[in-house]
From TrEMBL:
Secretion signal, residue range per the UniProt entry: none
MF annotations from Gene Ontology: S-adenosylmethionine-homocysteine S-methyltransferase activity; zinc ion binding
Single GO BP term: S-methylmethionine cycle
Annotated source species: Kribbella capetownensis
SUPFAM superfamilies for this protein: Homocysteine S-methyltransferase
Cofactor: Zn(2+)
InterPro entries: BHMT-like, HCY_dom, HCY_dom_sf, Hcy_S-methyltransferase
Gene3D superfamilies: Homocysteine-binding-like domain (3.20.20.330)
EC id: 2.1.1.10
Superkingdom assignment: Bacteria
Protein name per UniProt: Homocysteine S-methyltransferase
Textual note on the cofactor: Binds 1 zinc ion per subunit.
Length: 291
């Protein structure tokens, strides 16, 4: 199944400044129609899954930006409604899904922690942060949850416990570097954590395309579940300078990632798309390559 690409870069391409701590979640309040337009562009490009604008959305984050709690809760739930409305506007009979994005605790910190993990907080703090947000998203009735860009196996333990309690389908993906989570734990250990019935696929996102193949093979070997894979464009994020560095490898720009994706599919990746810096044109090329 073809996933969508990055939401933030697609919004930036439409002229939006996402440099504040709320990132793309700010537009849930300021420009929800723009989020809808990006979801439509990805569906139109061939994506069968829209990932909601809730990756960096949290009650704590909105409150820090001056948004009252009740409004923050409404905005988080609205991320699902926006994507569902766009999905339902297509009348060609194809089954499209809405995945409610659940980003890591580090995304709320807006300091690059989602690329490091090891936040220095307790499991109880992580549970108190993730639990209410998961409940809000599930109450908005997405098709599944996209628990994504998780850098740390300790955070994964907390999230998997919450998923089991909610009893709601989800995919679970780590942010990785080589054969390790961003926090440095071996993927063979990390992939063993989300092996519960509620998790329908396990894999990676927000990594380089070159890291995907081995990780997909490891995820399938450890879990016996289908794999999910949606890497970045090939660039890496400099959290200090707040810009992307390195070469860009995407289907549209270099013709390199789409052939790689065929190998990921052959290895057992059932859900394939793109993350940061991967746009609608790239997803269109990916869908064509995998058709």
């Amino acid at each position: 199944m073809i996933l969508d690409g990055g939401l933030s870069n697609a919004l930036e391409d439409r002229g939006h400044d996402l440099s504040d701590a709320l990132w793309s979640a700010r537009l849930l309040k300021d420009a929800p129609d723009e989020i809808a337009a990006v979801h439509h562009a990805y569906y139109d490009a061939g994506a069968m899954v829209a990932t909601t604008a809730s990756y960096q959305a949290s009650v704590v984050g909105f409150e820090r930006a001056g948004v009252p709690r009740a409004e923050a809760e409404r905005l988080i739930a609205s991320s699902v409604r926006i994507a569902r409305d766009v999905r339902d506007s297509f009348t060609d009979g194809r089954r499209r899904l809405v995945a409610a994005s659940v980003g890591p605790y580090g995304a709320m910190l807006a300091d690059g922690s989602e690329y490091r993990g090891r936040y220095g907080v307790s499991a109880a703090t992580l549970r108190d942060f993730h639990g209410p947000r998961l409940e809000l998203l599930v109450s908005a009735e997405p098709d599944l949850l996209a628990v994504e860009t998780i850098p740390d196996a300790d955070e994964a333990e907390v999230l998997v416990g919450l998923l089991a309690e909610l009893d709601f389908p989800a995919w679970f993906s780590y942010s990785i570097s080589g054969a390790y989570t961003r926090a440095g734990q071996p993927l063979t250990d990390a992939f063993a954590i989300p092996v519960i019935d509620q998790v329908i696929a396990v894999g990676i996102n927000c990594c380089t395309p070159d890291d995907v193949q081995a990780a997909v093979e490891t995820a399938i070997a450890v879990t016996g579940k289908p794999a999910v894979a949606y890497p970045n464009s090939g660039e890496s994020w400099d959290a200090t300078a707040r810009h992307w560095i390195g070469p860009r490898i995407t289907p549209a720009s270099a013709g390199a990632a789409a052939p790689l994706a065929s190998d990921w599919f052959s290895a057992g990746a059932a859900y394939i798309g793109g993350c940061c810096r991967v746009g609608p044109d790239d997803i269109r090329a990916l869908a064509k390559a995998l058709s």
